[in-house]
Specification:
Oligomer: homodimer
Structural class of chain A: alpha/beta
Strand order of the largest sheet of chain A: 2-3-4-5-6
Largest sheet of chain A: 5 strands, mixed
Helix content of chain A: 40-55%
Strand content of chain A: 15-25%
Radius of gyration of chain A: 14 Å
Amino acid sequence: MNQPLAGPAQVPVLALGDILLVSLQGELHDGMAEQLQHDLTSRVSASGVAGVVIDISGVDMVDSFLGRVLGEIASMTRLLAAHTVIAGMRPAVAMTLVELGLTLPGLVTALDVDRALELLSSGGT
Amino acid sequence: MNQPLAGPAQVPVLALGDILLVSLQGELHDGMAEQLQHDLTSRVSASGVAGVVIDISGVDMVDSFLGRVLGEIASMTRLLAAHTVIAGMRPAVAMTLVELGLTLPGLVTALDVDRALELLSSGGT
């Protein structure tokens, strides 16, 4: 069922109280990645949210590009005093990342969104 | 930036406490719609969640197919004692739906995910 389809112009950023949630699905293209970074940083600075959760359970392949984008988002939000947690990484994705030598340093991960929210509320990041 | 891209094999269903959250993005194909309905109904019946929030802020065009899918999901979850709220509909989408004669009867909507969660927690559905 993984046929090509017209993707969204941009990835929606959902507000959950003082947390921003992004659900990445399928492939992330350059334009969408830049748009997402712009949306997240502006939303974080405007609303002063405590954290950002990026769920990648809908992503079945992470390449060096997406890895860099996620790392940049984490760094950007940290500069804006918000923590970013990557949630829902598939085991196969983790295996691929390590095999590619992409250990995503500086990225905080959680098993799922619930645990990511707990992590952010407990200040565990 | 709305170029075609390889879409996800399925739409991820995120658990937020006793709420399931789905962020629809881009187009929903038949296979993905069936998969989503199957995932949601099985998750609802297995975990006994109180509600389902489907955010469509990433959807810039709702046709009769997606309208029917959303309506079916709402009916299915209601039979399983859970309420479904559609969140984040774009004004242009609402206008298109009404022009198409698709008023989505039986569907509860909220302006955004936060308000949808409030609605579900207050039992306003």
